[in-house]
Specification:
5 helices, alpha/beta
Length: 195
């Protein structure tokens, strides 16, 4: 698949440095390996080796996946990593067209993975009480056209939320990534589908 302007790609610099970039024809990224021009990435295939402006060092351009996004997102909260995310998706039975509630959006790593799992018609309802994190992750996800229509963001404290936006037996799974999940279990249980 050929990479185009405005695509979001993963740049693999080394095992400790992986970043998510939206490509602009006049854009560039500078890191310890040099200056890399976006125009040298646009038109290439995923997996290509991209050289810096001095042709001394290189990085790889990769297609975004939930695992690589989890590795690349800024770690401003206690982040779940790839193996944890995979296991959580399994436990939530995150399959196409399911409806899932996530509390504690954080960096959005799990949100992205869950949304990928429930495509094409499922929904992830994600709650974040911290206004700065909510605003930041919601803005970041605007560029994720592959999943944005499958995510509903809520700036609410789920502990004080009565789940009035949901019908009884509507939700397939709830994942509570928060310090005190037991405080909302009683209120949340009515929206869960019976198994």
């Amino acid at each position: 698949m050929v990479i185009a302007e405005n695509d979001i790609v993963i740049l693999y610099i080394d095992e400790d440095n992986i970043c998510l970039v939206k490509l602009k024809n006049d854009g560039s990224i500078t890191n310890k390996k040099g200056i890399f021009l976006h125009k040298n990435i646009i038109g290439k295939e995923y997996g290509s080796k991209i050289y810096d402006t001095l042709s001394r060092n290189f990085i790889f351009v990769l297609k975004k996946t939930p695992e690589l996004i989890a590795t690349s997102l800024k770690k401003k909260t206690q982040t779940l990593y790839e193996h944890d995310i995979s296991f959580i998706c399994l436990l939530c039975n995150a399959l196409p067209n399911k409806k899932i509630i996530e509390a504690g959006t954080g960096t959005g790593c799990l949100t992205y993975a869950l949304a990928n799992c429930v495509l094409p018609h499922g929904v992830v309802h994600t709650f974040e009480y911290n206004e700065e994190r909510y605003t930041e992750v919601k803005k970041e996800f605007e560029d994720f056209e592959d999943v944005i229509n499958n995510i509903k963001f809520y700036h609410k404290d789920i502990i004080n939320y009565n789940f009035e936006d949901f019908k009884n037996n509507e939700i397939d799974a709830i994942f509570l990534d928060m310090p005190n999940p037991w405080l909302c279990v009683e209120k949340a249980k009515n929206v869960l589908k019976e198994r």
